[in-house]
Model the fold of this input.
Amino acid sequence: MAGATLTVAVKDSSGVWHNLPVFGPNVAASTYSLDPAALATALSALGLTPQSVEGIRFSFHKGDGFATDTTLTPNISFTARSTTRLDGDPVTPAPETPVEYPNTATVDADGITDGGKALHDDDSDSATGTIETDPSGGSGGSGGIDIKKAWVEDTVDAQSSQLAHTQLGWKANEGFSPIRITDPANVAVPVNQTVFDAFNLLAVDEIDDSDTPFSDGWFLKYDTITEVELYYSGAWHTITPPGGSWMTAARGFKGYVLTGSEQAGTTGVRVTYEETAADTAARTAAQQPGAAFDPYAPEPGTGVGSGGILRMIDLTWQIRTKTRSSGDFVTGGDTYNTSSEGVAENTAHMSATRLSDATVATDSDDDTILILDQDPATEVAKSVTPAGPLFTPMVGTPAASCHSTATWTIVGKNASTACSPSYVRIADPATCTDINLLPCITPGTPADATADPFDTSGNYLTNPTVANPFERFNATSITISASIPAEDLDATSLRGCCTTGWHLHDHLKPC
Done:
C-alpha cells in the first residue's frame, strides 16, 4: 500500500522479538516477500534460523491512517517439521496417520479520531493444520519426488465392459522440470506383465481450472502439461494437442480421449509437466500488485510447482473381453500379472529432471484391482394383447372371416453385469416348470446352444403341466426386434417345432 510501512518481527525460543528491516514507505503499491533463501539470510543477520523461529508479527503503520475498509492480509508459508520442538517426538505417531495442529492468530488495531479520541480493537481466530508423514520418509520416493498409484474401484466384473479409474498422485520438491508421469512403470516388458493385457486405456481425464491455492487446477496457472504420449507399435507417439495446446484458455487441462484404434493398440501413456517461459512470466506477474497478484504462486525459475499436496492425473480404463497376449477371455479365474487369480496390478512411474545439474530422480508405485466372475442371469416377461376374453366362432367358420386374434409379446434379456454372453435363447412354451427347472438349463457349448431345446418325445399339446398357447392358437406371424441398437439381428435364428413351439436363438455382439 502506498505510503505505508511494514515491520516484520520474529520471536525466538526465549520469547524475545527481533525486527527484520522495515519495508516502505513507497510511493506506489508494492509487494514485500522473502523466499526461503532470502528469509534464511535475513534471520542469520539476527543470529536466528528458520528452525528457531517460534512466532511472527506484522506491524503496519501509515501516517494519515488507513481507510475504514482496508484489509491487510499477510501470507505465510510453513514447512512441516519431522519432530516436535518441545520434546523431539515425531509429529505423527506413524506414517500416513494425520495429526491436527491448531494455530491461532490475533490482531490489534490502534488509532485516533479527528477529534482526538483514542481507538482500540482486537480479535483472534484459529485454524487447524494437518501433518501426515509420508511412508517414504517425507522427502519423496527418490531425491525429493513421490508418486502414488490407486484404483478408485476395488473390483470390476469380467465380460462386463465396465469402466474403472485410477488416480496418479504425485508431488515434488522445488527445482524439477520437466516431470514425466508414465503408466505402466516399464513399457518394455511383455504386455502380459502389465495391466494393459486385461484393460484398455480410454482417456486421460481433463483437469478443471481453479483459483484455489494448491489444487490441481491452480498449479496449472504456473506450469504446463506440454506433452501427452501413447505407446503402441513398440514406440512412443506424441499426440497433437487440440487447438495447439493441452491447456484451456483458463489454464485447465483439456484431457484426451483415445480413438478406437488407439485403445486397441496402446500399452502405455506418458504425461509431461514443465515450467515454460510463459509460466515464469505468470509467476513474476503474481508477485506484483494488481489483478494477477497471488502470494502462493511458485517462485519464478524453480521448476514445476512443488508442495506437500499430491497433484492428480486421473485415467479412465475399460476391462477387455479378451486378453491382448493370448486372446483368451478375461475372467476372474485366470491369473494376469500377479500370482493371485483375478488380480491385475497397475504400476506407475515418475521421473523428474533437476534444474541444477540435469540429473534425474525417479519413483514408482502400484495398486491392484480384482476381476470378478458374475453368475449368468436372464429375465423374461410375457404379455398378451388383447388382455381380455376372446370369443370363438362356431365350428366350421372360415378362419379368415371372424376368428379372433391375439398377440403375445415376449421380452428376454441378459440380466447379468457380464454383457457379452455367447447367446440368449427364448423358448415358447417353456421347456421346464416352476418345480423342475433342469429342462431349461442348457449346457454352455456351441452344439447345445443351437440344439432343439424341446423334448420331442413329450406331447406339448396335451401335457397339463405346460402352458402352451399353441394348444388353441395357430402362429400366423413372428416379428423379431431388439431394443439395443448394436444387437446383431442378422445372427438371430428362429426355429419351430412341429408348429407347437418355437425358440429364438440370438447371437450377441461382444461389448
